[in-house]
Amino acid sequence: MKLEILGSFGGNADTYRLTSLLVNDCLALDAGCLTSALTFERQLPIRNVMVSHAHSDHIGTLPYLIDNVFGYSDGPLRIHGSAAVIQALKDHVFNDVIWPDFSKLPSPSSPSMVFETLHAERPVHIGSLRVTPIPVNHLVPCTGFLVECQEQGSAFIYTADTAQTDRVWEIANATDNLKCVIVDCSFPNHLEDLAVASGHMTPQMLARDLKKLERKIPILVYHLKPSFERQMAEELDALGLELLNYRIQGQVIHI
Ligand SMILES: [Zn+2]
Ligand SMILES: [Zn+2]
User: Fold this and answer.
1) What distance in angstroms lies between residue 11's CA and the mean position of ligand 2's atoms?
2) What is the pLDDT of residues 76-110, one digit of tens each?
3) Which of 22, 23, 107, 229 could form a disulfide with 4 if both were Cys (CB 3.0 to 4.6 A apart)?
């Protein structure tokens, strides 16, 4: 399985890209930077996008991706999300005001985009990949994803935006072939109250949550706020966790 970290930040500035992961060149997890990180040619093979939640930093490039691939691909682009996510996308983005409703274009019978509703812990199969949504602890309904490659017998978990949570770690502990976890850490330690209120983690909160993980696997930290990057780097280094890495944007990981 090829996992590409296209964007790994919880804020946007020059080289700091918002969150998107790309699996096997064709499945995207979140759409923070799909059209800004990928050439037009690399956008065309994306046939499925899993959306963790409806916050702008995770859906921002979805309208432009659909616009780019419109008319170029065989079938529709499939947007997967919980019922709450899909309703938010319909109401607030693809509503013929902010952006055209591509689920009716070029015609309702042959649309260029379809919505697929995800249900908690019910896996969906996309080619050789099996993706299981796991509800997490954020300000709005949000699901992380367990992504398993059935051909290679490998798996990873992307927690998506979350404060401290349990179920993700239970599933991580029960997944024998788990190779890495990509986990939220957004604010420095002195802003723990803000992190809790907004459904995110600080380095100290992350360290407490990681005690629930019984596996020695790489921990890839995403969603750092660029304005706090230097301070958070010091605080994350101070945790002394040798398998933890927060410089992950641009990495291509074969697992
Ligand atoms: Zn969020
Ligand atoms: Zn976010």
Assistant:
1) 8
2) 999 999 999 999 999 999 999 999 999 999 999 99
3) 22
